[in-house]
Amino acid sequence: MGTRPTAEPVRQALILAAGMGVRLKELGTAVPKGFLRLGARPIVEESIARLTRAGIERVVIVTGHQREFYEELARAHAGLVTTVHNAHYAESGSLYSLCCAREQLDGDLLLLESDIVYEGRALGALLEHPAPDVLLLSAPTRAGDEVWVEARAGALHDMSKDRTRLGPEIAGELVGIAKLSRPFLGEVLAVGERMFRTGYKGDYEVHGLVQASRVRPMTCLLVPDLLWGEIDDARHLERAQTTVYPRLVELDPLPADARAGRAR
């Protein structure tokens, strides 16, 4: 099922950040979701801080909506952060965004969504796992809009927001962080090439990871007590502000300048 150690330490990360944040309404039009603030710095900057603390030396961000925010971030973190623009962000899905970065990626990587806050041990659990391709899961958050993951013999089989369309072996809830080997990434890109002959739609989760796992198995890693949150809508934002982030500051603090302040 794929348990060999990754040949080289993972030193790069890809953050998907082209979404338009339509479910956040006015707040989503003001800034990209990665630039929401729960502390003094945007959540994407806090994610980058956790990535570098885990040993990541290069971060590629795929931009779309309000790309200038991320381009300024890249200038402020020259040598660490690079941006790639998805010119079709308004009519494409996250799989196309992932494929936009193909020329920037030269090895194994961590794949993350831009709109999540999480404990640093999420990264450690993936990086320390011996399997080359690993999908991070948590216990149910009950945050709403969950993506459920079905596993068979510990490997990814399917995922859906509709739990009833999956089989009985629900392994956990999708977090939005994964470790991908270069061969697995190649399978994801191949899926994209086939799909994009007829349009740019398609998400990286079901259309990318699930389809690629038919060729190269992906291990499902459950960290049941992981503290994390996604911010897709106003309810998610409130949960992050009132429940997730205050505990995160206590359990996994970043430097003080990253913690003060409120979302805006």
Report the CATH superfamily: Spore Coat Polysaccharide Biosynthesis Protein SpsA, Chain A
Terminal Cα separation, in Å?
A: 45 Å
Q: Per CATH, which architecture?
A: Alpha-Beta Complex
Largest sheet: 9 strands, mixed
Number of domains: 1
Number of E-state strands: 11
CATH class category label: Alpha Beta
Chain-averaged pLDDT: 92
What is the N-to-C order of secondary-structure elements (H for helix, E for strand)?
A: EHHEHEHEEHEEEEHHEEH
Share in β-strands: 15-25%
What overall geometry do the principal axes of the alpha carbons give? globular
Number of helices: 8
Radius of gyration: 17 Å
CATH topology: Spore Coat Polysaccharide Biosynthesis Protein SpsA, Chain A
- Structural classification: alpha/beta
Give a description of the structure.
This protein has 264 residues and is an alpha/beta fold. The protein has one domain: Spore Coat Polysaccharide Biosynthesis Protein SpsA, Chain A (Alpha-Beta Complex), CATH 3.90.550.10. The protein has 8 helices and 11 strands. Strands 1, 2, 3, 4, 6, 7, 8, 9 and 10 form a 9-stranded mixed sheet that branches. The N terminus and C terminus are likely disordered.
What's a quick, concise take on this entry?
This protein has helices spanning 26-30, 43-53, 67-76, 94-100, 121-128, 182-195, 204-212, 234-251, and strands at residues 12-17, 58-63, 81-85, 109-113, 116-118, 134-138, 148-152, 155-160, 170-180, 219-222, 228-230. By secondary structure, the chain is α/β, with parallel strands linked by helices. The chain has a single domain, classed as Spore Coat Polysaccharide Biosynthesis Protein SpsA, Chain A (Alpha-Beta Complex).
